[in-house]
């Protein structure tokens, strides 16, 4: 009986809060009517975006109430209201989430007062269920009806506040637009890096090589020893230029990925990082390292390159910034993707704005529609977890 009363009381609190919110929305209708009239008259157009933001907050309060009762959150999909007045007005009017909230608000005027039905159930329930359940040990009959009213309020609110497919599509388009912008920025930065490496390194060495060969040709007849020395220097310059070119190619797509696969390439990174790195590889991934078992699948080349970059950048950051001596890397095959987890036992406190390379990792991962989560409390450890979608 005590559990039944406690659950009924919790449901009553939910219904009372819903009634209070419904009463507040009835008062808010006055503000909404004033906003509409002022917007039509142009003079109060600036009020419309602010009113829409208030509606979003009211709908957000209802979403939180439903989540507290059911334990399941109602997703929301809104376009950000920002920019100049014309852009804010356009967003406020065209956002599908605005009409979803207005539809809920109108319906909530009517079903928001379900709590009124719960009040007469209390005296009846305390008497009937007190005898039926408290004395006879049967299941309660009346007080559970209050919980059912709260469930009904939650179901209707969920159905009305759940984003429409159009809103989800609009949100997805906005997300992909931002992702594309990040990918374009990352691609531009990579092109500038390659151009800088070629210009400052390889091109300078090739120019020096050409000059030394020209000097050797001139000195060949009159001073063969000097010409031989110049040719030796030219050979050294050619080898250095080849090393520079390998470095540039490695930055575009590491050859070790092609030769040994992601697992083997990550093991090579771990061996050369300067840290005590433990690598754990899911048996479903292909590993071409020496002694590795045969079999397994291999993700697409773009996914491999992004995962390799995440591991390389994470280990480099651990060496430079964390002060860690140990780290671990985990590669796991998911039903529809690849998960990479890099953990170091350093001092923590990784900051995206601190030049630690996290922004570059985020852009690479976002370009493949993946997710990156960083956990780095002060004092450590730092854990970077990445999931990249792919088809196996």
Q: Which residues form runs of ≥5 with pLDDT under 50?
A: none
User: What's the number of helices?
Assistant: 12
Portion of residues in beta strands equals 5-15%
Rounded to an integer, what's the Rg over CA atoms? 33 Å
* Spatial ordering of strands, largest sheet: 1-2-3-5-4
Quote the distance from N terminus to C terminus.
Answer: 54 Å
* Helical/strand content category: alpha+beta
Main pleated-sheet profile: 5 strands, mixed
Q: Report the helical percentage.
A: 55-70%
Mean pLDDT equals 79
Overall form: elongated
Pfam families: HATPase_c, HisKA_3, Sensor
Keywords: ATP-binding, Kinase, Membrane, Nucleotide-binding, Phosphoprotein, Transferase, Transmembrane, Transmembrane helix, Two-component regulatory system
GO cellular component, one term: membrane
Protein name: histidine kinase
Short summary:
With 392 residues, the chain is an alpha+beta fold. 66% of the residues lie in helices and 9% in strands. The chain has twelve helices and five strands.
């Amino acid at each position: 009986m005590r559990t039944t009363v406690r659950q009924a009381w919790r449901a009553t609190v939910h219904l009372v809060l819903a009634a209070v919110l419904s009463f507040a929305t009835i008062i808010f209708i006055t503000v909404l009517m004033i906003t509409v009239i002022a917007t039509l008259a142009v003079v109060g157009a600036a009020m419309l975006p602010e009113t829409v933001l208030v509606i979003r907050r009211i709908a957000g309060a209802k979403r939180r109430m439903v989540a507290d009762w059911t334990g399941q959150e109602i997703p929301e999909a809104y376009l950000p209201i920002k920019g100049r007045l014309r852009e804010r007005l356009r967003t406020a009017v065209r956002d599908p989430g605005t009409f979803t909230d207005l539809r809920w608000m109108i319906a909530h005027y009517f079903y928001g007062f379900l709590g009124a039905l719960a009040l007469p159930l209390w005296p009846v329930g305390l008497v009937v269920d007190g005898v039926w359940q408290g004395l006879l040990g049967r299941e309660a009959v009346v007080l559970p009806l209050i919980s059912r009213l709260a469930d009904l309020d939650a179901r209707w609110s969920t159905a009305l506040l759940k984003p429409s497919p159009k809103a989800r599509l609009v949100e997805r388009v906005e997300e992909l637009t931002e992702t594309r912008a990040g990918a374009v920025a990352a691609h531009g930065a990579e092109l500038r890096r390659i151009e800088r490496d070629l210009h400052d390194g390889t091109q300078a060495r090739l120019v020096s090589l050409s000059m030394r060969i020209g000097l050797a040709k001139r000195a060949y007849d009159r001073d063969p020893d000097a010409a031989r020395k110049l040719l030796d220097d030219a050979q050294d310059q050619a080898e250095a230029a080849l090393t520079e070119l390998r470095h540039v190619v490695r930055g575009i797509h590491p050859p070790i990925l092609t030769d040994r696969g992601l697992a083997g390439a990550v093991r090579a990174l771990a061996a050369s990082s300067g840290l005590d790195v433990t690598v754990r590889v899911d048996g479903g991934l292909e590993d071409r390292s020496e002694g590795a078992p045969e079999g397994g699948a291999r993700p697409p080349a773009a996914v491999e390159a992004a995962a390799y970059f995440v591991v390389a950048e994470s280990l480099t950051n651990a060496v430079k910034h964390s002060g860690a001596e140990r780290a671990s890397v985990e590669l796991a095959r998911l039903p529809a993707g690849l998960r990479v987890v890099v953990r170091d036992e350093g001092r923590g406190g990784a900051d995206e704005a601190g030049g630690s390379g996290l922004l570059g990792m985020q852009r690479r991962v976002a370009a493949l529609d993946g997710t990156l989560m960083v956990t780095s409390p002060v004092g450590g450890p730092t854990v970077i977890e990445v999931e990249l979608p792919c088809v196996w």
